[in-house]
Design goal:
Layout (H helix, E strand, L loop, with lengths): L2 H15 L4 E9 L6 E12 L2 E10 L7 H13 L4 E6 L5 H8 L5 E5 L12 E2 L2 E2 L2 E6 L4 E4 L8 E5 L4 H7 L2 E8 L7 H15 L4 E5 L8 E8 L6 E9 L3 E10 L3 H14 L1 E4 L9
Parallel strand pairs: 3-4, 4-5
Antiparallel strand pairs: 1-2, 2-3, 6-8, 7-8, 8-16, 9-10, 10-11, 11-15, 12-13, 13-14, 14-15
Length: 287
């Protein structure tokens, strides 16, 4: 497979995953700063909350790891095109400096590795679960996948690549997403937390509930709760709440105790990258 086939295959796969999104392969857009046409490997466009969202995917089919200079060039490229999000995909990997440059930059950019021999079984890494008029653009962390057709009372789940949902739920790291709409029954986060604690104390004999310092976001308040009880052994439960004006999103992680620290970082990464939006319906009722 050459680099053109590599790009085409990834674009084709994304179209299967997101049939309602406008996904273009090998397109050109005029740069805001450069004032020149820039070539884009894959462009994903959608309208969320009344504004346009543009995700630019850059495919690097290299014989060596992508270096920090390639990531810096990509970040500048995203700025020139005013992209909402950037995803760099390569078949080999990234240098440590490249990972650090992407991770600690303020721009929303992700690095992915997709090898040729894994393309047929590659699953989605970004999805848009929704409830009523609200949605969230959710990305899976490195080494995990996103399942937007879960078998449970939640809208999406995330777990390590190579496992099916039931395996991850029963014995490995497993994260699920729930939307809680604010109304007379669930007016605010404080009431949700209080009600949850009452339910926890009814179902578990001696639960330990602790609230931990966590990520901070400019668009919503955040709260991270740890639940530790013998009934969950050998796992612990972390729930990270994102408190928006009209809705509370919460991400719950079930993790083996010996991997709790590692998987907590995955949970917080997901919450940091999540983009909250609204679903706009047409007169025909379609999204």
């Amino acid at each position: 497979m050459n680099w053109k086939e590599y790009e085409f295959y990834i674009a084709k796969h994304l179209r299967r995953l997101f049939p309602h999104a406008d996904i273009k392969h090998n397109v050109r857009r005029k740069g805001i700063v450069s004032k020149t046409l820039r070539q884009i490997d894959i462009l994903v466009e959608a309208v969320i909350a009344g504004f346009s969202l543009a995700v630019i995917i850059d495919c690097k089919c290299f014989k060596k790891k992508v270096d920090v200079k390639d990531v810096e060039t990509f970040l500048s490229f995203l700025d020139d095109l005013k992209a909402s999000k950037g995803i760099m995909i390569t078949n080999v990997g990234y240098s440590e400096a490249a990972y650090n440059r992407a991770t600690y930059d303020t721009k929303d950019v992700e690095l992915r590795i997709i090898k040729f021999n894994e393309l047929e079984r590659f699953q989605t890494f970004t999805g848009i679960p929704y409830s009523g008029g609200h949605c969230a653009i959710v990305s899976a962390p490195d080494g995990w996948i996103l399942d937007i057709a879960p078998k449970g009372p939640y809208l999406a789940s995330l777990y390590p690549i190579g496992l099916i949902q039931t395996e991850a739920f029963e014995r490995e790291g497993f994260i699920y997403l729930v939307f809680s709409h604010k109304d007379d029954k669930w007016p605010n986060l404080e009431y949700i937390l209080m009600t949850h604690e009452d339910d926890i104390k009814k179902h578990y004999k001696s639960p330990r509930i602790e609230y931990l310092d966590t990520i901070h976001r400019d668009d919503c308040a955040t709260c991270l709760r740890l639940l530790d009880t013998v009934e969950l052994e050998p796992r612990v439960d972390f729930t990270l709440f994102l408190d928006f004006p009209e809705i509370v999103l919460f991400l719950t992680l079930l993790a083996p105790r010996d991997k709790a620290g590692i998987y907590r970082k995955k949970l917080e990464w997901i919450a940091e990258k999540l983009i909250k939006g609204k679903v706009r319906f047409t007169s025909s009722g379609t999204r």
